[in-house]
Amino acid sequence: MGATPVIEADGVELSFGGGAGVFDLTYQVPAGTIVGMIGPSGCGKTTTVRLMLGLHAPQRGTMRVLGRNPTAFRAAERERIGYIPQQFVLYPNLTVAENIHFLAAMYGMPDWAREQRITRLLEFVDMTDAYQRLGSQLSGGMQRRLMLVGALMHEPELLFADEPTAGIDPVLRGRFWEYFRELRDQGRTLFVTTQYVGEASYCDYVAVMRKGRLIAVDTPEGLRRRALGGEAIAVTIDAAHVPPAVELLKRHPSVRAVRVVEGRDDLLHVFVDEAAPRLPAILNALEYGLDIIVHRAQEHKPSYDDVFITLMEQDEARTAAG
């Protein structure tokens, strides 16, 4: 991954019995990046975060965060870390301002250093007008934004966010990721878990988890290539020409595979190593080899939902094969 790792896990395992837990986790998180962990509910994302925070100790393997075993963190290391848990953990009977001042006091911030920081952060998350509102009077999205302010109050260099966008509307989810990318651009490192597979596109690296194991760690585009076995070209031709086109393309030296898109008898997905340089050769093979008129041909990028499903299916097939 290139940059200096802020987090290093090597063969980390924590079993709760009955197949629950995390197993053989090996990964690195480079400084100044957003790493997103995606996977279905119960796959081990929260346990992984808790291991990095030192709230759980691994039974096997080694975990180092900021150069130290998290279970042996001193106050100095914890002050460099921010954490947004899944549930609202601030005080519902305190106002937004009181909650933030309480958190600032916990980190030893003097009164004179707080106000300007609070003002900036509330503007950052668009909550200036909620300054005197009770925590219990905030919507779920606003509660999450308040926890983000609390996690950033002491200007941590490393932020953990455990499903921070769960249950909030798509517009607010997009704004959260804008906040995260701004923090990344300021040099912070972020580790974010999510069930929303499409959020992979906001990350620098994505870790895909299934049944407590990492099945892929790559860039968002790298995940697409891994799922597809390369890149894909979408080719639209007359339905009558599909069978001979499929046979021709299967024999083409640049083509890895050809599939007729389900529900479309005129659309092919042609899988190659690299789409852009191979596209002219695919067109030539169809137009000059079979005299087929190609109505449209372009690079196809499947959604991350499709990529995720494919990766899950591939891992399940590998597991079943032994």
Can you describe what's shown?
- The chain has helices spanning 45-53, 75-78, 96-106, 111-124, 140-152, 170-185, 220-228, 242-250, 275-289, 304-321; strands at 5-17, 20-30, 34-38, 60-65, 81-84, 158-162, 189-194, 205-210, 213-218, 231-237, 255-260, 267-272, 294-300.
- It starts with a strand and ends with a helix.
- It has 322 residues and is an alpha/beta fold.
- The chain is elongated.
- Strand 1 (5-17) and strand 2 (20-30) form a beta hairpin.
- The longest helix is centred in the last third of the chain and has 18 residues, at 304-321.
- A six-stranded mixed sheet has the order 5-6-7-3-8-9, sandwiched between helices. A four-stranded antiparallel sheet has the order 11-12-10-13. Strands 2-1-4 form a three-stranded antiparallel sheet, with helices on one face.
- Helix 7 crosses helix 10.
Strand-helix topology:
Blueprint: E1 5-17, E2 20-30, E3 34-38, H1 45-53, E4 60-65, H2 75-78, E5 81-84, H3 96-106, H4 111-124, H5 140-152, E6 158-162, H6 170-185, E7 189-194, E8 205-210, E9 213-218, H7 220-228, E10 231-237, H8 242-250, E11 255-260, E12 267-272, H9 275-289, E13 294-300, H10 304-321
Parallel strand pairs: 3-7, 3-8, 5-6, 6-7
Antiparallel strand pairs: 1-2, 1-4, 8-9, 10-12, 10-13, 11-12
Helix pairs in contact: 7-10
